[in-house]
Write a structure and sequence with these properties.
419 residues, six-stranded parallel beta sheet, 15 helices, Ni_dep_LarA, LarA_C, lactate racemase activity, Nickel-dependent lactate racemase
């Protein structure tokens, strides 16, 4: 059978064996007809608790947490829906929007206009969270599994705290959205590094689709619940980044409902693991470097047999990339096993090491072969990876009885082993 893989800007067609190849592709649910109406419904008829308007009194200060520019959240329409709902109750000067950057860089003025629209930027105060600015943080104690919690001071001091986000599977936190808009989104560096330390990231339950029992998500949830969120609004998006469904209300109940809806759209059960899994990182711009392509590998790792082969087709036009410490850390040890040992020996990690740890764990359990257009065989060997110029030939070398799974859109749909 011929399968079209999402690869770079143009895609890549691959011929794979009939009869023993399973293709797991995303569903493409249509967006809601009226996004504002869907959001208004979520604000007025929440999953749990009273409507938003009943939770805010005149004179109270309100902080809204929103995703930073690395995430495709429809911020403008979500914030506008909240402002419309609180019209006549909330004074504009009592509102602040906090961009939940986590440890990412601040968004520029031009990026904020693209994210929120001109009217919001011109009329509402917007603050980029800075995890490294001690003066902008407040210490709240220790939550969850002994996590020291520093949160944005403006968030903590607001009378009403509202999270906004979107929900999709996450490769070590289980699912995005919900409590992640508090921590790591608005947390201090010490808090983020603890949440993402080697022990938590290295736990087998820190993976796609698992929240309960996931040590990362358990602590994220404990922080949000322990420090207080007054209302939460999340959406689910389709491939065109249109809203498929909206959920509002008390944080944990809202997020649980959104997760179950997202799971039916973005995850697929399979009955048994496969000898070979062919994956991608969903094409450009998501496959522009090896660092991002770890997500495609991670999706494949959920259903490959121990010692099986993952073939990851990612164009990598931006190389490793060369900025940041990812390449330096990834190539610092002679093997994936040695990388894992070195990371586990450190009490804390820096952000690029989170990705390296996930990648090293995958490469310790399976053979990983890349198909790229911009990384040489020698460069990939530095990263303990192989390269193939011909995916079909690489699959054929596993023999006529090898079972094959294909994720043509990579982590856009996450397979998992059914109980």
């Amino acid at each position: 059978m011929r399968v079209q893989l999402a690869y770079g800007s143009d895609g890549l067609a691959v011929d794979l064996p009939d009869g023993r190849t399973t293709v797991i592709a995303p569903t493409h649910p249509p967006g809601v007809g009226d996004e504002r109406a869907a959001l208004r419904q979520a604000l007025r008829h929440p999953q749990a608790g009273p409507p938003l308007r009943e939770r805010v009194r005149p004179g109270q200060t309100v902080a809204i947490s929103a995703c930073d520019g690395t995430r495709p959240q429809p911020r403008q329409v979500m914030v506008e829906a909240i402002l419309d709902e609180l019209d006549g109750v909330l004074a504009r000067e009592d509102l602040v929007i906090l961009v939940a950057t986590g440890t990412h860089r601040a968004n520029t003025a031009a990026e904020l206009r693209a994210m929120f629209g001109d009217w919001i930027v011109d009329n509402v105060r917007i603050v980029n969270h800075d995890a490294r600015d001690a003066g902008s943080l407040r210490f709240l104690g220790r939550f969850g599994n002994d996590v020291p919690v520093w949160l944005n001071r403006e968030w903590v001091d607001a009378d009403v705290r509202i999270t906004t986000g979107f929900v999709e599977p996450h490769f070590f936190a289980g699912f995005s959205g919900g409590p992640k808009l508090v921590a790591p989104g608005l947390a201090g560096l010490d808090t983020v590094l603890t949440l993402h330390d080697a022990a938590r990231i290295g736990d087998a339950r820190a993976t796609w689709g698992i929240t309960e029992g996931n040590p990362v998500h358990d602590d994220v949830r404990a922080i949000a619940a322990g420090t207080g969120v007054h209302f939460a609004l999340d959406v689910i998006l389709n491939r065109q980044q249109r809203i498929v469904a909206a959920f509002g209300g008390d944080l944990l109940a809202m997020h649980a409902a959104a997760i179950e809806a997202a799971r039916t759209i973005a995850m697929r059960p399979v009955p048994a693991p496969f000898d070979v899994v062919v994956t991608t990182n969903a094409g450009f711009p998501l496959d522009q470097n090896l660092y991002q392509s770890v997500k495609g590998m991670s999706a494949a790792a959920t259903v490959v047999k121990p010692g099986g082969t993952i073939i990851c087709a990612a164009e990598c036009r931006d190389g490793f990339p060369d900025h940041g410490s990812y390449r330096e850390v990834l190539t610092s040890q002679p093997s994936p096993a040695a990388l894992l040992e070195a990371i586990r020996a450190r009490p804390r990690t820096v952000p690029d090491q989170w990705q390296v740890q996930v990648q090293a764990r995958i490469q310790s359990a399976a053979r990983v072969v890349m198909h790229t257009s911009y990384l040489s065989d020698a460069q990939l060997r530095e990263a303990h990876l192989e390269q193939t110029a011909d995916i079909a030939d690489c699959v054929a070398r596993h023999g006529s009885h090898a079972t094959v799974c294909v994720l043509p859109e990579g982590p856009q749909t996450i397979p998992y082993l059914s109980p």
